[in-house]
Structures are given as structure tokens and as C-alpha cells.
Design a protein that fits this description.
Number of domains: 1
Oligomer: single chain
Strand content: under 5%
Order of helices and strands: HH
Largest sheet: none
Helix content: over 70%
Number of helices: 2
Radius of gyration: 18 Å
Distance between the termini: 35 Å
Structural class: mainly alpha
Shape: rod-shaped
């Protein structure tokens, strides 16, 4: 993902130019997006399993 358009290019530029703070901020943004995507996909999978099993427990 590093080097592609979006958040990847600033991370790559900051690594090659040794801008630690910029790389850290952009890297944390990528991590935050990954965590959000993980939580949303887990929630969707849990709802799908409950729907398929016919259960209503939380």
C-alpha cells in the first residue's frame, strides 16, 4: 500500500526524506483506517451470522 496514491505516497516520501513526524502521522492515519475497517467488517459478519442462524441474541 505504500507508494500508491492517497495516504501511501506521503508515507513513502517521508520515509525516503527522513521526515519522521510526517511519516508517523500518515502511518497512524493508515492504522486508524485499518482499525475502523476491521470493526465495521466484524460487525457486518456478526450481523450476517445472526441473521442466517435466526438468533436474536447480542
Amino acid at each position: 500500500m505504500i507508494g500508491v496514491k492517497g495516504l501511501g505516497q506521503p508515507v513513502l516520501k517521508s520515509i525516503t526524506n527522513q521526515y519522521f513526524t510526517l511519516g508517523l502521522i500518515n502511518g497512524l492515519a493508515i492504522v486508524a483506517l485499518a482499525i475502523i475497517f476491521d470493526r465495521v467488517s466484524q460487525s457486518y459478519a456478526k450481523r450476517s451470522q445472526q441473521h442466517l442462524s435466526g438468533g436474536h441474541d447480542e
